[in-house]
Amino acid sequence: MDWPQLQKEQEMIHTQLRNASRLSEQKLLIEGQIDHAQRDINNHSTALNHIRSRLDKLEGFSFMNMIRTWTGQQEELRAEKIDKAAILELKIKEAQNMQQDLSKDLEQVNGKLAQINGRQLQEALSQVNAKKRRYLQLHAPHQAQRLEQLANEEILTKQLIKEINEAQEAGDVALTMLGQAAASLHSASGFSTWDTFFGGGLIATHLKHDALDQTESYLHNAQIALQRFHNELLDVQDMSTKSLHIETDGFVKFADYFFDDIFSAWSVHSKISTAREQVSRVQDDVHNAIWRLQDQKNNVQDLMQSIEEEQKYLLQA
């Protein structure tokens, strides 16, 4: 077996081992995110129950539906508390949806992990490494140390390019979802304006409810897409080494703050424009993150080319 074949075999095993490690990291990350969503549900539910008890214990009552049908009676309806209750209802619903989607992601990760035999892969890797050592002793004893170093760098570089590609794909999905959310917010704003300035009525109110319900769905789709993009960026960050370093601290944080206040920002007509501005800012952040990923990928691909050229030179020498 020649050197390229040995290198390819080692690369395949390393890729599977890296995938197992990555899946294990994702498992812990997603489990933590599910726990965080549950804490949000508990905290928001406690706060909502407290408001309900102060508002004559209105069990089974939807504050969000009330806030959507107001016609200028805010003072009489104890607006401040009802507004807070509507926001909490939205946040509880979103945390529940997030928990459900993350649980599906966790199920997929566990299924993939169950198909990987780590011990078998380690044994196969040891056998390949032994073959490579024998090959170098016979064909390139003076270049053996450098060739082995280059081989390891090649594997890491290819894996890093793979991680960057996956992060870019997740970023593209996030941009698509954010675009749909932005369009839906624009539509909801239009129905709200119609309801406010033209008297509304039952048909206008029904259309407005449908638009806002659809916007909730699009915002959730954007949030879970951002969370997955965030997780992929962390994978890229974890792949960084001394020779291959990608700085992601500056653009993995946008998903942490975006949805903290997004629902409170659009729960009433007067604040929908604020939510649209927030979505637009996050779209810019995602665009910038994808651009930086591409810039780093170009650098890594240049490094890959130099590694291949040096390997070829040493083997021919």
Can you walk me through this structure?
It is a single chain. 83% of the residues lie in helices and 0% in strands. The chain has 317 residues and is mainly alpha-helical. The protein is elongated.
Tags for this model:
single chain, 83% helix, mainly alpha, 317 residues
Task: Summarize the helices and strands and which ones pair or pack.
Elements: H1 3-54, H2 63-68, H3 79-114, H4 118-139, H5 144-197, H6 202-238, H7 254-258, H8 262-266, H9 272-316
- Number of continuous helical runs: 9
Domain count, please report it.
1
Helix content bin: over 70%
Percentage of β-strand residues:
under 5%
Secondary-structure element order, N to C: HHHHHHHHH
Give the distance, in angstroms, between the N- and C-terminal Cα atoms.
19 Å
- The geometry reads as elongated
Low-confidence stretches: 192-207, 250-258, 263-270
Q: Would you count the extended β strands for me? A: 0
Quaternary status of these chains?
Answer: single chain
Radius of gyration over all CA atoms, rounded = 26 Å
Overall pLDDT metric: 76
Structural class by secondary-structure content: mainly alpha
Report the sheet with the most strands, covering strand number, pairing sense and barrel closure.
none
